[in-house]
Amino acid sequence: MRLRDATGDEWLARHVREALDEDLGDRGDITSLATIPVDQTGEAQLVAKQDGIIAGIDWAVYTGRMTDPAAAWTFHVEDGTHVTPGQLLATVTGPVHGILISERTALNGLGRLSGVATMARDAMRLVAGTRAVVIDTRKTTPGWRIAEKYAVTCGGAGNHRIGLYDEILIKENHIEAAGGVAEAVRTSHVWVAEHGGNTPIEVEVETLEQLDLALQEKPDRILLDNFPPEHLIQAVERTGDLCVLEASGGITLANLAEVAATGVHRISLGALTHSAKPLDISLRMR
């Protein structure tokens, strides 16, 4: 799968155009105009400066194409590829003005998504040997959710629901308004039967007592919110094969392995998207 398959050409074209317009303003790249002949051509290399996973190649290619169709971005790797410092990622040829105009916008998107993919890779390495899968959350950059969730999969981790529309996730405020855990799950089953028979139902619980109430109503998944490891172990023992369990809240890369060792099926980690550091990638003219 590619970024354009996940987000669509329309998303790429719109966001790349907005990023370029933001960079160029109404005067263009005045530094290049002042220093380089407009008809000069050349070649540049895109090089990884640190270990990581690449994601978002289509973003860079679209940036080059929209900046100057004559500037060709030829990648030597694919999304999901593990790269090492010094590795050649792409060769860019064509008008130098086009290459330099597209440089920062291309690297911003590619670096951002590659950083998300790299953190997802790191997270999955920490849960290796357990049955847990690390998944993302809705804590994403506005307008970039689909792209960032795509990057998560490039790193080998999984996706939670995309938005409010594709899964039912009953959280504490829903429970309070609905009159309790059991009632919230019960009415959700009724709603799904009437409006969407395949819509998953997940409910958040904060105590083992709430877990027991939720299990009686047979949701598809139960989210264990801010459970300490000892309570996660008890939750796994109480639940058995009745329901998929997801751990969430207060989880970082530092304690991820400990959480996975409790036996939960899924671990949601908002840091995959809201705290990933962009992968360091450079473009140098030859």
Describe the 3D structure.
- The protein has 286 residues and is an alpha/beta fold.
- It folds into two domains: 3-118 and 277-285, Quinolinate phosphoribosyl transferase, N-terminal domain (Aldehyde Oxidoreductase, domain 3), CATH 3.90.1170; 158-268, TIM Barrel, CATH 3.20.20.
- The chain is built from twelve helices and twelve strands.
- It has helices at 3-7, 9-24, 30-35, 57-67, 96-126, 145-154, 172-178, 181-195, 208-216, 229-239, 256-260, 271-274; strands spanning 41-48, 52-53, 72-75, 82-83, 88-95, 133-135, 168-170, 201-205, 221-225, 244-248, 266-268, 281-285.
- The strands form three sheets. Strands 6-11-10-9-8-7 form a six-stranded parallel β-sheet. It has a four-stranded antiparallel β-sheet with strand order 3-5-1-12, with helices on one face.
- Helix 4 (57-67) packs antiparallel against helix 5 (96-126), helix 5 crosses helix 6 (145-154) and helix 9 (208-216) runs parallel beside helix 10.
- It starts with a helix and ends with a strand.
What percentage of the residues does DSSP assign to strands (E)?
A: 15-25%
The CATH class assignment of the largest domain is Alpha Beta
Report the CATH superfamily of the largest domain: Quinolinate phosphoribosyl transferase, N-terminal domain
User: Gyration radius, to the nearest Å?
Assistant: 23 Å
Brief write-up:
Helix content is 45%, strand content 19%.
Question: What are the main properties of this structure?
Answer:
286 residues; alpha/beta; Aldehyde Oxidoreductase, domain 3; 2 domains; six-stranded parallel β-sheet; four-stranded antiparallel β-sheet; 12 helices
